[in-house]
């Protein structure tokens, strides 16, 4: 009983910040109290749900959960779908991410008081939170790429938050350009994975070494390239050498956004 219930709840972690984002878009930009209240209520309710979910998950023996939320394209030979996946790694990121985002949201309520882009900041933070949850719950590379792009867009918007200044806008464009290298790496991973497995491969299948070994027989070069492109995407996005030059430029954004991102 617990496992089907928990599996059905996975989509809520994307839906809650999406609703909060939509609500803040409707509030007039001068109504700071309503904007901040919607933002930290959204993130706070998400955090409470996450903690309840994690307790039930632990009581249930911390099973691995997987669900296909949306089939976008379906033929006899191929399916393109949005998939969510939950395991121990997801649990850690769900707990830490929801807690940190709640702290940043509450702190930003006063830190950005009377700032010209007050509404824009909270809209972007909630949009970031949507992308973050899509990434940690992603069950295949296609779902991961959606969240990956959302995080790339929000990082660009937050770095260039003070858009009336020259340097924040310039550095935001530089970071956005560097992130495209990571995007190309991930797109190549998706493309090569489809050539290797001839299907929309899920992360749950990749957890079985025998299936991976069988697919790699005679395709060792393709497997190595997939690993290298994954390494490239991760190195660029996390600011590892030789791609670390964008990290100090990213500090041009508001302090709370720098805290939650880096």
Automatic annotation (TrEMBL):
Residues 139-261 form the NADH:quinone oxidoreductase/Mrp antiporter transmembrane domain. Residues 75-122 form the NADH-Ubiquinone oxidoreductase (complex I) chain 5 N-terminal domain. GO terms for biological process: ATP synthesis coupled electron transport; electron transport coupled proton transport. The keyword Signal does not apply. It is found in: Endomembrane system; Membrane. InterPro entries: ND/Mrp_TM (IPR001750), NU5C-like (IPR003945), Proton_antipo_N (IPR001516). Its main location: membrane. GO terms for cellular component: endomembrane system; membrane. The chain crosses the membrane at residues 6-26, 38-60, 80-108, 120-139, 145-163, 175-197, 217-236. GO terms for molecular function: NADH dehydrogenase (ubiquinone) activity; NADH dehydrogenase activity. It is a multi-pass membrane protein. Keywords: Membrane, Transmembrane, Transmembrane helix, Ubiquinone. This is NADH-Ubiquinone oxidoreductase (Complex I), chain 5 N-terminus. It comes from Nitrosospira multiformis.
């Amino acid at each position: 009983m617990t496992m089907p219930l928990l599996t059905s709840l996975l989509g809520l972690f994307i839906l809650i910040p999406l609703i909060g984002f939509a609500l803040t878009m409707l509030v007039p930009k001068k109504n700071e109290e309503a904007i901040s209240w919607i933002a930290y209520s959204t993130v706070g309710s998400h955090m409470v749900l996450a903690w309840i979910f994690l307790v039930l998950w632990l009581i249930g023996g911390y099973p691995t959960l997987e669900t296909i939320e949306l089939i976008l394209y379906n033929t006899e030979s191929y399916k393109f779908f949005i998939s969510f996946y939950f395991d121990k790694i997801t649990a850690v990121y769900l707990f830490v991410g929801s807690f940190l985002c709640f702290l940043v949201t509450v702190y930003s309520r006063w830190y950005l008081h009377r700032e010209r882009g007050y509404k824009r900041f909270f809209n972007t933070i909630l949009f970031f939170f949507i992308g973050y949850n899509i990434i940690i719950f992603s069950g295949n590379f296609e779902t991961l790429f959606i969240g990956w792009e959302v995080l790339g867009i929000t990082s660009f918007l937050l770095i260039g938050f003070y858009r009336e200044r020259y340097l924040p806008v310039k550095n935001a464009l530089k970071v956005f350009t560097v992130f495209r290298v990571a995007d190309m790496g991930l797109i190549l991973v998706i493309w090569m994975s489809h050539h290797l497995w001839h299907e929309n491969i899920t992360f749950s299948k990749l957890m079985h070494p025998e299936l991976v070994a069988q697919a790699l027989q005679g395709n060792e070069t393709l497997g190595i390239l997939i690993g290298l492109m994954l390494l490239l995407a991760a190195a660029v996005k996390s600011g590892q050498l030789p791609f670390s030059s964008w990290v100090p430029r990213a500090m041009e954004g508001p302090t709370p956004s720098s805290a939650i991102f880096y």
